[in-house]
Amino acid sequence: MDLGIKGKRALVLGASRGLGAAIAKSLAAEGADVVAAARNADAITEWAKTTDGSVTAQKLDVSNAAEVDAVLDSLLESGNIDILVNNAGGPPPGSSTGPSRTDWMAHFETMVANLIHIANRCLPGMEEAGWGRIVTISSSGVEQPIPNLALSNGLRSALVGWSKTLSTEVASKGITVNIAMPGRIHTARVDELDAAAAERLGKSVEDVATQSAASIPAGRYGQPEEFADVVTFLCSERASYVTGSKIRIDGGSIRGI
Ligand SMILES: NC(=O)c1ccc[n+]([C@@H]2O[C@H](COP(=O)([O-])OP(=O)(O)OC[C@H]3O[C@@H](n4cnc5c(N)ncnc54)[C@H](OP(=O)(O)O)[C@@H]3O)[C@@H](O)[C@H]2O)c1
Question: How many whole angstroms separate alpha carbon 99 and alpha carbon 229?
């Protein structure tokens, strides 16, 4: 199947490792011109050396509003962004009463407000072109809150409300807006969360990971490429009638219908 995105310009955030890097590689392999952004641009340059297709590394800290605007100014000067993959690091684990007001506000800025702002900067060009794709990486926690991840469960739900609202506003303009929800995809972030859970529960990391995998109907963590393939499809011409959706990539973890 030709995904129809050859020559489309994609901006993938949080792309120095994990899910963002896998999505950037997958889009590049399908012929998109990918700008892969993260704070550690050297890591992007490094993985790009062994990747097929066009990848440009861009240093960007999405927690820094001034840097966000400067980078978007520069990128948009040389053309539209056709595909935006909204992604960044997850917040630290913690209970609902753990984070302070300052913590909530700081993470809201990084995980919600600045990602919405980046989408707003890309939208005029998409509207002008009559084509655009915005995929936001969320979490299964927005459907089934994950214990001890209050910041993540709470803030990502705000992005779901925004994404759905935006999808209805731009659907007639050839722009689709969707949410991709990872369950447990094996990245460094998941290893870090397993290590934190092991310490909190007084168990070994291996025990935590084994129990976690056993709780997933598929019986294992997903691979970043399995996640990236679905996101790449959502970014494609072929997914032109999929919008306003939340797509689970979770090996069956969410038990609700
Ligand atoms: N993996 C899963 O199963 C899973 C499940 C549910 C939710 N999620 C969420 O999905 C997202 C991606 O997951 P992942 O597993 O790929 O996480 P990860 O391995 O921690 O990767 C996060 C990426 O975001 C970048 N990043 C972090 N802070 C940033 C900032 N301030 N500005 C720009 N880039 C930033 C990191 O690069 P730099 O450090 O170089 O900036 C890195 O490339 C995270 O938000 C995670 O919480 C993942």
Answer: 34
